[in-house]
Amino acid sequence: MVRVYDLGHSRAGDKGNTSNVSVIAYDARAWEILERELTAGRVARAYGHITAGPVRRYVLPKLRALNFVIEGALGGGVTRSLAQDKHGKSLSTLILTIELPDR
Amino acid sequence: MTERPLRIGVGAGFSDDRVGPAVALAESGEIDYLVFECLAERTVARENLARTDNPEAGYTPRLIERMEAVLPHCLRHGIRIVTNMGAANPLAAARATQAVAQAAGLGPLSVATVAGDDVADLLRARPDLVLEDGRPIEAILPQMVSANAYLGAGPIVAALETGAQVVITGRVADPSLFLAPMVHHHGWAADDWPRIAAGTLAGHLLECSTQVSGGCFADPGIKEVPGLEDLGNPIGEIGADGRVVITKLAGTGGRVDAATCTEQLLYEMHDPAGYLTPDCVLDVTDVGFAPDGVNRICATGARAAPPTSSYKVTIGYHDGYIGEGEVSYAGINAVARAELAAEVVRARLARNGHHYSEMRTDLIGMSSLHGMGAGRPEPYEVRLRIAARCGSAAAARAVGTEIRAMHVNGPAGGGGGSDPAVRKVLAVASALIPRDLVRPQVHLHDGQEG
Q1: Which positions 12-41 of A are in contact with B (Cβ < 8 Å)?
Q2: Sequential pLDDT tens for chain B (450 residues)
Q3: For a surface tag, which of B86, B94, B159, B447 has the fewest beta carbons within 10 Å of its beta carbon?
């Protein structure tokens, strides 16, 4: 198993009650694993205790990047949320804890 | 010989952004424009309330501080300023900016304002329109304090055409603040899609300032950012043909490379093939980032289609109160004591006669950011935080007061309780309205009158 943390880097953005979390591969080998294994389903499970989703995945092969759009992740949105991190900026580091099969 | 590209510096990428790096850009960045993006989602709603109390208020409070810091340098170097710091009152912001120039002995200052983003009256006349979450607009009309459409580059270009030194807007789309100077300077047509695409891409990359030049990026040992303490604001170089280079002020800290640019490209983006702005529908699926020297990245491959027939509107509305408080525990069994304190506080709140529609318990140091995932190790110290939504300030205050009582009336060793916090909530909701209902207005204030 390999951590997403060791394969790529991430940033999270907010729009309303939806968080988007990118994962950008460090190299071609890492991209191969990320593209194959980091599915919307795996991400939905990792964020499942925060939101029921849904989670949509977008693939940007030229940039070796994935973009996950995670609905319902921001406690009702930046302006209403009871959370400390209302923008969900720290949600980028949750995706990096996911472990993937490396073959 | 090719013409020198337009150089646009970023003065601020959010309302609380640092001021010093903007001054450095104005002093020695050899820029043509300095653009400040300072409006969070609810800022306009909050400032609308401020204007109700004081007709000369309603622009972002830090406008004066920022203008005092950069205006002398901008006027000396012929740098024009574009900003959305006008918030709910661009006219008052223009007067305040002119007063700053006057007080600094900089002479009359011409300021152009963009208004017409306020569509509250329009919405009151159209309660049939629907919110993004499916509710009819009339559901929040009684609590509505503001409604503002995200205007595009068009009216900002018109404001620049007046020749004004400073352009101040209310709500406009963030990338449009940057696209407008490009359109104005290079004389691009509003439907020159390859160039509008390039300019919107540049605007999107620049709109959060240092998030493209090394901010929000460092992870020690893994992703290093040199000189983070001297992080420099970014500069966009835009050629007449739409060639885009992202860079930063020489001698500052930070980094501009494919990694920082890719993170920022996808920031706040949903479908990369359909990023909606008032100026176009941007497709970044074929974008690439190529090195163009040290801390210089050439961004290519953006495509654009014509914009949709709607403007996005942000509606601010009163949404009750949030009360919260915190208290800390340490040492052996700290987590169990924090959890007992949470149970006690929640039980006491349940009996106090107030109604809480939503309550959240966080163990800071353990579960406050990523929730309580399986297999989390117990920390040595933990800080309990409870936040609750309710209908009155008294109910909100009770939350923090009960948590504060944990110093004496709770489990062992609870310390460092926070002062009870009460927040009146200004929430925002989104809707789409037909573009042709909105009438942007541009006014020139030449600074000669009065």
Answers
A1: 13-16, 18, 20, 22, 24
A2: 457 899 999 999 999 999 999 999 999 999 999 999 999 888 898 999 999 899 999 999 999 999 999 999 999 999 999 999 999 999 999 999 999 999 999 989 999 999 999 999 999 998 889 998 888 998 899 999 999 999 999 999 999 999 999 999 999 999 999 999 999 999 999 999 999 999 999 999 999 999 999 999 999 999 999 999 999 999 999 999 999 999 999 999 999 999 999 999 999 999 999 999 999 999 999 999 999 999 999 999 999 999 999 999 999 999 999 999 999 999 999 999 999 999 999 999 999 999 999 999 999 999 999 988 777 889 999 999 999 999 999 999 999 999 999 999 999 999 999 999 999 999 999 999 999 999 999 999 987 654
A3: B447
Kindly give, in sequence order, each residue whose CB lies less than 8 Å from that of residue B308, ignoring residues fewer than 6 positions away.
Answer: B276, B281, B432
Place of tokens 């007061």: B401
B315-430 carries CATH number 3.30.870: no
Q: Which amino acid is at B223?
A: K
Q: ipTM of this model?
A: 0.97
Angle of CA points A5, A8, A10, to nearest 5°: 85
A85 to chain B, any CB pair closer than 8 A? The answer is: yes
Residues with Cβ within 8 Å of B142's Cβ and at least 6 positions away in sequence, in order, are: none
Matching residue, tokens 């310390």:
B415
Residue A49, chain B, CB below 8 Å: the answer is yes
Q: Which domains does chain A have, with CATH numbers?
A: 2-100 (3.30.1360)
To test the contact with chain B by mutation, choose from A14, A60, A70, A85 the residue with the greatest count of B C-beta atoms within 10 A, namely A60
